[in-house]
């Protein structure tokens, strides 16, 4: 217990110091490993801490998989697989070849080259995001290369155990081929089972509205798929990555990532502690001068290789060099490869120590290098390339989710507001916890995400800090107050509009930070009053003045009435017509749904909205938007698909 408390205190202090000086938290975990490991206080057992740390790798790879999907990779294929593969192969190959010149054995040289070729996804993306450079050209190039590097970790994790075996020549190639074959088979099984089972599993879990069940299911899926691949001789990380990738296209991606992040970050910290425990301080002291020469040389070499490749693929000199400077450091996945290579005795402890220290030093320099990459590029290039039409590409590009309205809740009120925002071409994004509603909205092309708005990380992913306004449209008073407190802490100047059923908490909500509170039932009454007065001939300015007085007095003159029973609202539901659907090949006027009191409110063909005119000839793949009561819509859908 004393050791655990001491380690917790060390972690808090070390991470605080790193944050204070703008350094990555990985350095804090490595320092704890050095201090508490065999070379320091000898508080920890290397094998035990490494086993716990491996779970961190599993969750990290699961999170990484959530960022990927096959369509996304295909859309970015030229930069990801073109420039990314060239960078990894050339940087790793040249570094490995140079290592062999200095007497390092070929298998160890492969690990050295791979470790140095990888960059820090965590550091680079964090810095680019904070600087608002993710959508600049050098930011896009950096992300593309990082995507391929992260993908390449998967085969590298398969290859390293093979390199550590006693296989020679053709036998090693056979083992590598067998590993790839097993990986392909597992991927096919998971693709088949996961594409059918996982979405339905999370649909049921999300419908329960239980945070604990959702988190436990997420952990179970990550660990279960990891053990599946482990059972066939592959790494747990591979299975977790595949599971994450299968869920990467679902509406639950952001919630899954937010739920697993605390476990991932903590266990990854434990893993980096285990890496730090491998550091031999005697080797560091003995090779201090060599390391001070090695690290800048490696970073300069890597930056120049990346810049040259980017330039050869048609990028501007300034963008190419800025990309190289952003990716010059050694990454966190390099530590994973080094740790695994040491475990399988592919590299010696001395080489491992040199690589770890080099990585730590390069990561210390990385934030400052990224922050000043454009300035350095301009200085090196003497002002950089001139842009067409005299424009300077230093101007901020328009960011995704910038100056948008953030809708929290996508029920009847949220959807009504979204329709007006869409017609006014005002960007918006909505968060909702109803899985069916989110799925239906996404099918219609709406920017709706599944996520718990009470989670600050979910709000950040939805662009809270770049939003123009937040609208809270659901009716859960306790949650609304929690949200107001959270938003005001994160973005104190961001306007917040809250919709409520009545005005019973109006003053409290305004005191909690709401800029405006809209009581739905009372505003409905005011709308009715305004229409009646207008039709009676009362001048419009007089009506507006009367309504403004009522609002300014917090609706006090509207108290004392009984609320009527609310009627049932009608549902909206998108129906896709498969090739064998009954309605395919028929004009819309022949598809009679009036018997069920269901109307067709819209239609889509591919990604394009089309007019639902009576003469519209329905084709396979068309989507129709049905409106009506739930039971009626279900019967109408059966009519469209089966004809009865």
Automatic annotation (TrEMBL):
The keyword Phosphoprotein does not apply. It holds the Pfam family TrkA_N. Keywords: Antiport, Ion transport, Membrane, Potassium, Potassium transport, Transmembrane, Transmembrane helix, Transport. It is a multi-pass membrane protein. GO terms for molecular function: antiporter activity; monoatomic cation transmembrane transporter activity. The chain crosses the membrane at residues 49-68, 80-102, 108-125, 145-164, 176-198, 219-246, 266-283, 290-310, 322-344, 351-370. It is found in: Endomembrane system. GO terms for cellular component: endomembrane system; plasma membrane. Residues 560-642 form the RCK C-terminal domain. Residues 402-519 form the RCK N-terminal domain. One of its GO terms (biological process) is proton transmembrane transport. The keyword DNA damage does not apply. This is Potassium transporter. It comes from Ferrimonas lipolytica.
């Amino acid at each position: 217990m004393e050791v655990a408390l001491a380690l917790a205190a060390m972690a808090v202090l070390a991470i605080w110091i790193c944050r204070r000086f703008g350094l990555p938290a990985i350095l804090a975990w490595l320092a704890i490993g050095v201090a508490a490991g065999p070379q320091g206080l000898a508080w920890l057992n290397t094998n035990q801490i490494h086993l716990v740390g491996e779970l961190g790798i599993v969750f990290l790879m699961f999170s990484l998989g959530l960022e990927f999907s096959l369509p996304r990779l295909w859309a970015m294929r030229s930069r990801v697989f073109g420039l990314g593969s060239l960078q990894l192969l050339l940087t790793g190959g040249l570094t490995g070849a140079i290592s062999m010149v200095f007497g390092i054995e070929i298998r160890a040289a492969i690990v050295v080259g791979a470790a140095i070729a990888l960059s820090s996804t965590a550091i680079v993306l964090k810095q680019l995001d904070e600087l608002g450079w993710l959508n600049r050209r050098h930011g896009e190039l950096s992300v593309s290369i990082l995507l391929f590097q992260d993908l390449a970790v998967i085969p590298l994790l398969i290859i390293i155990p093979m390199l550590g075996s006693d296989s020679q020549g053709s036998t090693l190639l056979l083992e590598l081929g067998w590993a790839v074959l097993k990986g392909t088979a597992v991927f096919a099984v998971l693709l088949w089972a996961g594409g059918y089972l996982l979405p339905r599993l999370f649909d049921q879990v999300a419908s329960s509205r239980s945070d604990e069940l959702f988190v436990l299911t997420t952990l179970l899926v990550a660990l279960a798929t990891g053990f599946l691949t482990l059972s066939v001789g592959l790494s747990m990380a591979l299975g977790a990555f595949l599971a994450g990738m299968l869920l990467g296209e679902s509406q639950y991606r952001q919630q899954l990532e937010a739920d697993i992040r605390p476990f991932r970050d903590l266990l990854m910290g434990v893993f980096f502690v285990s890496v730090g425990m491998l550091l031999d301080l005697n080797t560091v002291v003995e090779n201090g001068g060599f390391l001070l020469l090695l690290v800048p040389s490696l970073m300069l070499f890597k930056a120049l290789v990346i810049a040259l490749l980017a330039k050869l693929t048609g990028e501007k000199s300034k963008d190419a060099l800025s990309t190289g400077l952003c990716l010059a450091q050694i990454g966190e996945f390099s530590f994973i490869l080094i740790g695994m290579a040491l475990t399988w005795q592919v590299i010696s402890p001395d080489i491992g120590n040199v690589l770890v220290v080099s990585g730590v030093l390069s990561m210390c320099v990385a934030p400052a290098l990224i922050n000043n990459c454009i300035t350095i590029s301009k200085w090196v290039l003497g002002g950089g390339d001139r842009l067409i039409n005299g424009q300077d590409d230093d101007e901020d590009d328009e960011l995704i989710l910038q100056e948008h309205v953030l809708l929290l809740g996508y029920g009847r009120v949220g959807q009504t507001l979204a329709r007006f925002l869409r017609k006014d071409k005002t960007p918006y994004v909505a968060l909702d916890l109803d899985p069916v509603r989110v799925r239906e909205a996404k099918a219609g092309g709406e920017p709706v995400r599944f996520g718990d708005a009470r989670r600050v990380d979910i709000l950040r992913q939805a662009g809270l800090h770049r939003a123009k306004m937040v609208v809270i449209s659901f009716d859960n008073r306790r949650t609304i107050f929690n949200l107001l407190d959270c938003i005001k802490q994160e973005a104190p100047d961001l306007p917040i509009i809250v919709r409520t059923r009545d005005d019973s908490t109006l003053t409290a909500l305004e005191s909690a930070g709401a800029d405006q509170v809209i009581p739905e039932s009372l505003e409905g009454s005011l709308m009715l009053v305004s229409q009646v007065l207008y039709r009676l001939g009362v001048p419009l300015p007089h009506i507006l003045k009367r309504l403004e007085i009522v609002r300014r007095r917090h609706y006090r003159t509207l108290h004392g009435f009984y609320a009527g029973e609310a009627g049932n609202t009608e549902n909206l539901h998108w129906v896709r017509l498969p090739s064998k659907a009954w309605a395919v090949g028929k004009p819309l006027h022949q598809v009679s749904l009036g018997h069920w009191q269901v109307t067709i409110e819209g239609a889509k063909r591919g990604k394009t909205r089309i007019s639902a005119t009576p003469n519209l000839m329905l084709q396979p793949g068309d989507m129709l938007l049905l409106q009506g009561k739930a039971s009626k819509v279900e019967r109408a859908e059966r009519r469209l698909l089966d004809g009865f």
